[in-house]
Write a structure and sequence with these properties.
The protein has helices spanning 2-9, 13-16, 20-49, 53-63, 116-121, 123-135, 139-142, 145-160; strands at residues 80-84, 88-91, 101-111, 168-178. Strands 1, 2, 3 and 4 form a four-stranded antiparallel sheet that branches. The longest helix has 30 residues, at 20-49. The chain has eight helices and four strands; from the N terminus they run ααααβββααααβ. The chain is an alpha+beta fold.
């Protein structure tokens, strides 16, 4: 029996050896995880580099295009001419759900150097521009406060692009309903 005990006391070589396949799989997994981390980091950098509406407004404020405060440090409101628009009903862009539409009543505020005749003459063009912008929006975009503020900026920029004498300085929503 001494010979049998000797066979059991020697460790088996099969369990303690190194498996090259396992090592290769581990190395490939580490490389894959590193690649995924790199691409996520690059996507985050690209997203952080895109300019938001707030960044544009802040840069305009710094450059002096927008005068946010008066000499006393208090916010001042620029005088202007109010131009009420008729009610709008426009279809929104098709999302995942049913067809949605928006009802909007707005007032445009033009700078005081503007001529009221130009507003009246361009009223159909102004309405068409606003309806076209609304048609490109989804309900999910407009339900958020940021979406409504961005819509105001978009409307101002679009109308100012074709005005000659006047300039829209603000847009006021009198009513805003999404169905």
């Amino acid at each position: 029996m001494a010979d049998g005990d000797a066979n059991f006391s020697k460790p088996a070589d099969s369990g303690s050896g190194k498996n090259p396949l396992l090592t290769i799989v581990m190395i490939l997994q580490l490389i894959l995880m590193g690649g995924i981390a790199y691409f996520q980091y690059m996507a985050h950098q690209k997203l952080a580099a895109t300019e938001s509406v707030m960044d544009v407004v802040k840069s305009d404020m710094k450059s002096g295009a927008i005068d946010e405060t008066s000499e006393t440090g208090e916010a001042r409101e620029e005088d202007g001419i109010l131009f009420p628009l008729d009610n709008f009903t426009a279809n929104l862009a098709q999302g995942d759900g049913p067809r949605r539409f928006v009802r909007l009543n707005a007032v445009l505020k033009f700078n005081k150097d503007s001529s009221e005749e130009e507003f009246k003459a361009r009223k159909p063009q102004i309405r068409d521009t606003i309806i076209s912008i609304l048609n490109s929006k989804r309900a999910e975009d407009l339900l958020k406060v940021e979406g409504k503020n961005y819509l105001k900026e978009e409307i101002k920029a679009a109308i100012n692009s074709f005005l000659v004498d006047g300039k829209v300085i603000d847009v006021f929503y009198v009513s805003f309903q999404i169905n």
